Every structure is written in structure tokens, then in C-alpha cells.
# Entry
Amino acid sequence: MNNYFVRRILQIIPVLLIISFIVFSLVFIAGDPVALMLPDDASQEDVELLRESLGLNESFIVQYTTYIVNLVQGDFGESYRYGQDAMSIVLERLPATLELGIAALLIALVTSIPLGIWSATKQNSSMDLVATGAAVIGKAMPNFWLGIMLILLFSVTLSFFPVSGRGTLMHLILPSVTLATGIAAEMTRLIRSSMIETLNQDYVRTAKSKGLKDRVVVYKHAFRNSLIPVITITALQTSTIVGGTLITETVFSWPGLGQLLIQAVNTRDMAIVQASVFVIALLVILMNLVADILYRLLDPRIKYN
Amino acid sequence: MTQSQTVINEAPKSFTQNKPSSFKRWTRLLLRSKTGTVGFFIVFFVFLVAIFAPILAPHDPAAINAADMLKPPFWMDGGSTANLLGTDNLGRDILSRIIYGSQVSLLVGITSVVVAGIIGVTIGLISGYFGGFIDNVLMRLVDAFLAIPTILFALVILSVFGPSVITLIVVLGATNWVNYARLVRGEVLTIKERDFVKAAHSIGVRNSKIIVRHLLPNVISSFIVISTLSVATTIILEASLSFLGLGVQPPTVSWGTILSDGRDYLATSWWLATFPGIAITVTVLGIIFLGDWLRDVLDPRSIKK
# Structure
């Protein structure tokens, strides 16, 4: 088992290398950042000097190697727009995104677990129909539109919540609900089908037939066992959540990583783009690793060779 | 061709054997499912709207009309039947823009899924069939892509190559192939252990022929199911990117751009942002319903449930 985790952790390295290669190649194709860094009236000599000092006259291989060497030392280059180390700017924005992401994940868990269990135990009832219907609609709604509609209803019309920004709990509610909806919808569907599968298992039938209370059967026997796929799903949602923060942060002017990244993409601040992609990818990979470990701890049936 | 070969070539296509052969059979299967029928008609309707947009649209979607700026829908004070769903900040007719917007959604949604499918199925077949080192390398590539949210990847690529419909299709295709690769690889791993593949291998059928003739037909039904559902997510993704200004560029109309135009006028003109969102949600809902129905019909494993 320990071997498995060592191998699993070592696998992260080639994955990160591939990501760095893809992103670096894209930025390389994107071309010369020098024009953006210098004032419009800069002379040809200045341009050449800057190119030389940034190592932009070197070949792709040399530039990539330098990039990797710097990256290993934690140096992601300097943002031309902020004139600061790109990674420190990214890390400065990270807490806001984590706050939004975690809030959304909590909302999604709190709504989808009871809804999923409920509709699985009362399959084909009107409650089930409402829950699955809501889940499908939640999945079909683009989250930026949902965000705008929530602003329209609760901020513009009813003035319950602030339109944008970060600070108080009131600021957090609309963006996290927006982000949570799609995830909750997906999770409700999956928890429901996972529960239905476990409820049809023999041990659940046995528990029922020996006269245990429904509540005990559902929570102690069925739910605990259907938790395993739920954990995997939750981990897989990390990528969706991070992707969702890009949009949600833009809609609500939430000062997080997503907003920073979209601005960086628009201003071609590639050092920031590279650093944020790296941080996001690492976050997703680590969450999946945690899920794998939990999976192993929760389900003794799984053996890793 | 020897007789044994003929048998091997024709025996395994359980998918084609199960396939209902007639139009009547399909219609009956469709009508049996309420949501499937609803989904089919929604999708059919959106297709008709996209194809006949020039006939159906009451106005030129790009025609600016300074006299009719921000007119509300017809049932409100100040609205008129000339612009059923009102007009935007440039006096353009919202209904006509939504009608034309369906073209981009379907075009990008379907073609990029085809691109993603071709890449993903090829990689999945190769990875699953050959295994070993090739499989290892390809799966690390899949892990790398999985660690970066699709929308983030798309953003970075679009910022490098500049937004246009063609780039959008290529980008969404190049980032979405991962799901197909994983699915197809998983299926191939089990199919290749079946007797008909082993038999074909033992009589010396070339690898390429085994892949195309024996493996491919057996993964097609799962492919159809997930690609249908993937059209839904791609339509949302396209709208999101267009909303962020990195998708379709004017004068081409996308539901995402209409929404993004409407965002600035939320306080005064709610209809700008509301109607395109409804169009997206209903379309995506139709596709999800259709996809779920297809899954039930094509996937023998889900019939039991």
C-alpha cells in the first residue's frame, strides 16, 4: 500500500512536467512579450537589449530548460504589469478563491447529500421527481447566467445582497450559491444513483428483513457504503469548481485567482498565466490524491498492487 | 478470405445486433420515454431554428437602430410587437439575435465534439489495445489535461491564437478529448480480453484491422451517449467563453455575447440578459434529456436499473 502511494505521488512529477511543457509552448507560440513591456516609443536598441536580457533570443529548448530550472526554484518570472514576482501575486489572490470554492463545496454537499438520499429512498415519488428535476435544471443552467439572474433578483430588485466585491458574509452568499448550483446538481444525480445501487444490495435487504428501522438501514448500512463514490465525485469536482470560479469571479468582481487570470489573459501577462495554471493544476492533482487516500481508508476491499 | 476469418469478422458486433433496425422501432422507443420525447423535440426545434434563421428572424440581428434602444418586450409598457423580446442598447432586436445565436451554439457544440471524439477515441483505442509504455505515456497526458479545467485551457489557447469560431472549435476539441480517451480505453481493456479479439489476433489479423473492425464498433454506443451529453456542456462552455469576450467575435452572434452585452444594463433592462440564458438552458436541457434517453436505449448495462 505504501508503495502505491509513493508511486502515485511520483506520478505527479511527469504530469506537472507535461503541463509546464504545454503551457510554455503556448506562451512561446504567443510570441514576443517585449512589445508589451516597453513604452511605445522605445528604440530598436532597447527592444534588443530587453530581449537579450530576458533570454528571448535563445532557442526553444534552452528557454524551456531555463524555465524549468527557475520553476523548480520557485521562480515563475516577473509579471510585467505588476512588476512583481508572478507567484507571489498569484498566492496573494489564492485565499479569496479558496474561500469561494470551499463555501460553494460546502453548500453543494449540504444540499446534495440529503436530496440524493431522499430521492433514492423514495424513488419515483413526487419528491424524487422534484429533486431530480431540480438537479437537471441546475446542470443545464450556465453558471454565469445564474449569477446574473441572482444579482438581478436579490441585488438589483430586492437589494438583499451587495452586487459585487468581497468582504462580509453577505458578499459571499450569491457567488458561492452560483458556483454551488451546478456542482450540487451533478452530485445529487450521482449520490442518488449510488444510493439506489447500494439499497439494492443483499446486506441492505438483510438489514431490512431483520427488522431494523428504516433510518438505521438508510444511514448506517446504505449511506456509509455509498459514501465512497461520493468522495471520488467530490474530488473530481475540484476541477469544475476551479473552472467555475473563473466565471463566477468575473460576474461578481470577486478579487480571486480567476479574476486575476482572466485579466492576465486579456493583457497577455504570461508570467501570471503560467503561475496560476501551475497553482490550479497542483490544487486539482492534490485533491485527487487526497481522494485516492481517503478511498483506500474507507474501503478495505480495495487493494493496491 | 477463409471461412474462420469471416466468422470472426462478423461475430462480435453485439451492438449492431441489438440495434433496432427500423425507424418504427426507434420511434416506439422514443415515445416510451417522456423526457426523451421532450428532449428530442427541443433539439429538433433548435435545429430548425438554426437552419431557417434567415427566414424566421424578424430583423437583421446586427442592424443598429438608434431610435429603438433598450425597448422592453411586447407585453410591457413601451414594448411593441415589432420587437417581441425587446431590443438591446444598440436597438438590435433580441429575438432575432437569439435566433441567429442558435447557429453558433450548434455549430461549435457539435463540430468540436466531433473533433474531440476523433482525437479521444483514437488515443483511447491505441492506449487500451497496446498497453504498456504507450499506455503509460498517453495516460499521463490524460492526467495532465484532467488537472487543468477545460475552460482555463481554452482561455489560455484562445488568448494565444486569438478568438474566432474556428479557433473555438479546435480549442474545445483539443481540450475535451480526455473523457473519450478514458472511456474508450476502459472499454477496450475489457473487450480485448474477449475471445473474438484473441481469435482474430491468433490467426494473424493485423493490429490496425483488429482495432478498426473489432474494437471500434464495440465502443461506438458508449461514444454516442457521452458525446451527446458533451454537446450540452460544450454549448455552455462556448457561451461562457463568448461571455468573457474570448469566444465568438462580432458581428457573429452568440448567446454568450448577447448575455455579456446585457450585463451592463441589468438595473434598467432585465430582458437583455434573461432571454439568451433561457435559450441556453432550454437547449441544454433538451440535449441532456435526449442523451439520457440514448444512454438507456444503447447501454445494455443501464437497462437493469
